[in-house]
Write a structure and sequence with these properties.
Blueprint: H1 2-12, H2 18-33, H3 39-42, H4 46-57, H5 63-74, E1 84-96, E2 107-108, E3 115-126, E4 131-140, H6 163-176, E5 182-188, H7 195-199, E6 206-211, H8 224-230, E7 235-242, E8 249-263, E9 278-287, E10 298-303, H9 310-321, H10 324-336, H11 347-373, H12 386-399, H13 414-424, H14 440-462
Parallel strand pairs: 1-5, 5-6
Antiparallel strand pairs: 1-3, 2-3, 3-4, 6-10, 7-8, 8-9, 9-10
Helix pairs in contact: 1-2, 1-5, 2-11, 5-11, 10-11, 11-13, 12-13, 12-14, 13-14
């Protein structure tokens, strides 16, 4: 399935040179096979390694075009679906290259000698919780002059770093407005609680879900957070939350409140005079009796989508829960893909490399989460070829567990398949119905070994 997507990437990317288009697909194939390995160690020859370096250096290649091609692959059937709901999670992460050769080409992150850039991503997620791909990726390289300056309200939003949230949302609306069959929710954390962002909403099929940061003053003179806290509890139920320390899921019993609110800027600047007042729906979930020593969950969310029933409110909360996936993407990109260890000379090559690694990371992540959300899906339905299944299971039967058997006419579920791959990476549970699923780290370790096994097999078969 990963290789199929990478082959399509060559057809949907336009660098203005067919050879470059084809090269991108091949590089993504290579990155998927040796995910996390350095460029020299993942290359089969010196010429292949030099070809990758030339590709990243080429003036026609850019982060924007790589991600646009990738987007067209995973959205190629958008005009054919009858009805679909997609989530677009926006978030940023810092990329630190302070000790690398490219450090001088980047800007400060936190202090003068902390060099790198801010990577901002919009990630497409299915309503069931499976990563689909990246919608947009941008890099913010700060100037040395910006060091020591704090955010200010004295300049228009277009001149602030936070404009990246609006930029992504505007492109999102432009892209999906012609497709009313697709309903889109742009899900953001507290950094996106920007008045101008809500004012940008125009498309009827594109909505915002943003965690509230500012306790804004409402038109009736009350405060936002106090208003929702004093609203009646509409429901008490359980949600699954991720513990930030252990990274494990746990159940949390929460109360649910929601209501409609109206507010406007209290002291607008000259360039904000024309901004209208806003009508939004605010939701709050608050944990009841959290575990000892744990800070209870409390989310206050703002939604541009009307919330009039308990069912609609729970759906919005569920969509916000799935925002966590973009943080997992950043984790696998940096910890698994090792992109902050790239030893490339300049910022252009680094940015192009990061986008290429991002495509491989999201493809790898998709397989793992497909097993989580659709565990009974047949591997053939998931796009896995019989030969790949056979190689894995024959190897596992001979070297790991006799209970793992290849059955051509009775293929395993995607969950069982993912567990067998993870066992190559150190996961010690067999694929019984009650087995827990492996984490991303164990899975990508197994995936790398799986690719090595396949390449060994194909090499041996080519000799006969």
């Amino acid at each position: 399935m990963l290789l199929k997507n990478n082959k399509l990437l060559s057809d949907y990317t336009d660098f203005g040179d067919k050879r470059l288009n084809a090269r991108l697909g091949k590089i993504c194939n290579q990155m998927s096979k040796g995910f996390g390995a350095s460029i020299p160690s993942s290359s089969r020859s010196r010429s292949e390694m030099k070809g990758i370096y030339r590709f990243f250096k080429n003036k026609k290649v850019s982060m924007q075009k790589i991600i646009e091609g990738h987007r067209e692959v995973h959205q190629k059937d958008r005009d054919k679906v009858m009805k679909q709901t997609l989530l677009i999670a926006q978030d940023s992460t810092t990329m630190d290259y302070s000790r690398k050769r490219s450090a001088q080409n980047f800007g400060p992150i936190c202090y003068k000698y902390h060099r790198g850039f801010i990577l901002h991503n919009s990630m497409v997620i299915s309503s069931s919780g499976v990563p689909v791909g990246l919608f947009k990726q941008t890099a913010l390289i700060r100037s040395n002059e910006s060091l020591g300056t704090s955010s200010t309200n004295r300049v228009p939003i277009e001149e602030k770093e936070s404009y990246r949230w609006l930029e992504h949302f505007e492109e999102l609306q432009e892209y999906y407005t012609p497709y009313p069959n697709i309903e889109v929710f742009n899900v953001c954390d507290r950094e996106a609680d920007i008045y101008e962002l809500f004012c940008k909403k125009q498309a009827s099929n594109v909505h915002l879900i943003v965690r509230s940061q500012h306790n804004r003053k409402l038109l009736d003179k009350s405060k936002l957070h106090e208003r929702i806290a004093s609203s009646p509890v509409k429901s008490t139920y359980q949600i699954k939350v991720t513990d930030r320390e252990t990274r494990k899921k746990r159940k949390a019993k929460v109360t649910l409140r929601f209501c409609q609110v109206e507010f406007k800027l209290q002291a607008p600047r000259v360039w904000q005079k024309e901004l209208p007042s806003l009508t939004l729906w605010v939701l709050q979930v608050e944990e009841i009796n959290p575990p000892k020593g744990k800070k209870g969950v409390k989310w206050i969310l703002l939604s541009t989508k009307p919330v009039k029933t308990i069912s609609e409110a729970k759906t919005i909360i569920r969509y916000y829960e799935l925002r966590w996936l973009i943080e997992r993407f950043h984790y696998i990109l940096k910890s698994g893909g090792q992109v902050t260890k790239l030893q490339l000379k300049d910022s252009k090559r680094i940015l192009n490399a990061v986008s290429t690694y991002s495509v491989s990371a999201i493809n790898l992540m998709r397989v793992n989460y497909l097993a989580r959300e659709h565990p009974e899906l047949n591997i053939y339905q998931a796009g896995i070829q019989p030969q790949e299944y056979r190689i894995l299971y024959v190897y596992a039967n001979k070297n790991m567990d006799k209970r793992i058997q290849f059955k051509e006419h009775d293929p395993p579920s995607i969950k069982e398949y993912v567990i067998v791959i993870a066992r190559l990476g150190g996961f010690m549970k067999y694929n019984s119905k009650n087995s827990v699923l492996p984490g991303l780290k164990t899975f990508w370790r197994g995936w790398i070994k799986y690719e090595e096994i396949k390449q060994t097999y194909y090499t041996f078969m080519s000799m006969n």
